[in-house]
Amino acid sequence: MQAECIACGRPMPLCAPMAYSCDCGGLLDVRRSLKGIDADNLKRIFEERRALRGSIYASGVWRYKELIAPELPDAVIVSRMEGNTGLYQAEGVTRYAGMRRVWLKAQSENPSGSFKDNGMTCAISHGRALGYRRFVCASTGNTSASLSMYAAYGGAKSIVLVPRREISENKVLQSLAYGAEVRTFDGTYDDGIRFLADHAERLGLYVCNSLNPMRIEGQKSIAYELAQDMNWRLPDWIVLPGGALSNAAALGKALRELHSLGFIDAMPRVAIVQAERASPFHRMHAGGRKTLVPDPAPKTRASALNIGHPPSWPKALRLLEETRGVTVSVEDGEIMEAKTVIDRGGIGCEPASAAALAGLRRLVRQGVVHPDETAACLLTGHLLKDTDAIREYHLEGRWGASMRNPPRPVDLAQASREDL
Ligand SMILES: *Cc1c(COP(=O)(O)O)cnc(C)c1O
Ligand SMILES: [Zn+2]
Description:
Blueprint: E1 2-5, E2 11-13, E3 28-30, H1 39-49, H2 65-68, E4 87-88, H3 91-97, E5 101-106, H4 116-129, E6 134-138, H5 142-153, E7 157-163, H6 169-177, E8 181-185, H7 189-203, E9 206-207, H8 213-229, E10 237-241, H9 246-261, E11 269-275, H10 280-286, H11 313-323, E12 326-330, H12 332-344, H13 351-365, E13 374-379, H14 387-395
Parallel strand pairs: 5-13, 6-7, 6-9, 7-8, 10-11, 10-13, 11-12
Antiparallel strand pairs: 1-2, 1-3, 4-5
Bound molecules: pyridoxal-5'-phosphate (PLP) and zinc ion.
Region (Disordered): 400-420
GO molecular function, one term: threonine synthase activity
InterPro entries: Ser/Thr_Dehydratase, Thr_synthase-like, TrpB-like_PALP, TrpB-like_PALP_sf
């Protein structure tokens, strides 16, 4: 398997010991020839695989193996039937956005509860093919949970580096439950990434962060499945939250390949939403700059977005250039309100995911998105990933809490209609 530096074009083999960036500092992209791929034939095969059970091709990632990692032997693939997630419309959500048609693609329904599974199944499988037995990541939580799950299922060892502060306890507990070796450190996600970039090779560890281009290959399946769900006609807008910007990187590569292979006729526009106090990418783009100035102290309640130096920003910038894309930032209060709307719609998500809807609402109000256009928001993580957020809103009445729904005591001996 072959990668290429996106900055200088240098070819880089994806073999052991793995390199995760070019000597020039550029990010890597998997490169393979798309010659000989027949879109119509593959569409038919992808449709047939939807009916499968009990084979890796029943997975919502490996269904698209030809477009992700055709050279990986089936025997090394560790799959938990990831993907295959729901695409929903909820009236309250559509009304809240101020539009007529909004879809939610619920990657929260993945086996470990976040979209990280789409990429992780691919990274772990590739690492196994190279003979690695120890897998590592630095993470605000969901990458750790996903890695821990796949490593456990594949009989390998996982080590996860987790910042001591500003993370969701649920996610760390999930990693502990799967048997990961959890190492907490003083510092931010960005410090953890820097450590791995400098030391993973020496320590014989396979890195499962999004610097690893194989994770990005797996995450392309989110766009593939959305496109297939919509009969290969994407909505006008795809809206996603931006933290480390891995999702944006994968979406960009997926859309580029789908378009050049003729799976889709037109490119959608893309909106990347950041949390106001962790928005270095939005500030760069809004300021018309082409270099990212890291935020040394990001601080948002949406813990999955609490990232000051998003590694994949050059790929995200390329996505914006190719899709006439936009960025927007939203306050934590708006995120929590949008989350409550999604929860009340019977779908639910963790705070970071709701940034997409909060951002879409802002863009409609700013006149950037027209109410008659269509949009799909990516819901990145599950409602139960952050139960503290539910407690804060509904029990403690924080975050405005205009839709607060606390429990009320009832005396069963004399309960009347007013009580129930
Ligand atoms: C990882 C994550 C994000 C951020 O995605 P990036 O690819 O890092 O931009 C958003 N929401 C949730 C729930 C996540 O786990
Ligand atoms: Zn380079």
